[in-house]
Amino acid sequence: MLQLRPNCECCDRDLAPEARDAMICSFECTFCADCAEERFKGACPNCGGELVRRPIRPAGKLAKNPPSRERVLKPHRECAAA
């Protein structure tokens, strides 16, 4: 099950579970659409995989399967100006 991480790993922007601009790779590295497209050109800076739109978990399923609260930030050189 997807963790639904709460923030962009680059700029630390909040990404709600229903955010349509949350992007992930197959390892669930999570970025906002702006960082994914402008800084990383659609490729995950961690694994090189494709960044795609994160699916939205139905609201009725969030109570039993809540999103992660763990914020992840990674020191990518492209994020220094974020």
Overview of this structure, please?
The protein has 82 residues and is mostly loops. It has one domain (1-81): 2-Layer Sandwich (Herpes Virus-1), CATH 3.30.40. The protein has helices at residues 33-39, 59-62, and strands at residues 22-24, 30-32, 52-53. Strands 2-1-3 form a 3-stranded antiparallel β-sheet. A hairpin with a 5-residue loop joins β1 and β2 (30-32). The longest helix is centred in the middle third of the chain and has 7 residues, at 33-39. The radius of gyration is 12 Å and the shape is globular. The relative contact order is 0.30.
CATH architecture, by name, is 2-Layer Sandwich
**Content-based structural category:** little secondary structure
- Radius of gyration over alpha carbons? 12 Å
- Encode the helix/strand succession as letters: EEHEH
Please describe the biggest sheet, giving its number of strands, its sense, and whether it closes into a barrel. 3 strands, antiparallel
Shape from CA axes? globular
The number of helical segments is 2
What would the CATH topology be?
A: Herpes Virus-1
Strand-residue fraction?
5-15%
Uncertain regions: pLDDT < 50 for 5+ in a row? none
Spatial separation of the terminal alpha carbons:
29 Å
Number of domains: 1
Strand order of the largest sheet: 2-1-3
How many strands appear in the DSSP assignment? 3
Compute the average pLDDT: 94
The first-level CATH class name: Alpha Beta
Give the helix proportion (percent range). Answer: 10-25%
Protein name: Urease
Pfam families: DUF1272
InterPro entries: DUF1272 (IPR010696)
Biased composition (Basic and acidic residues): 67-82
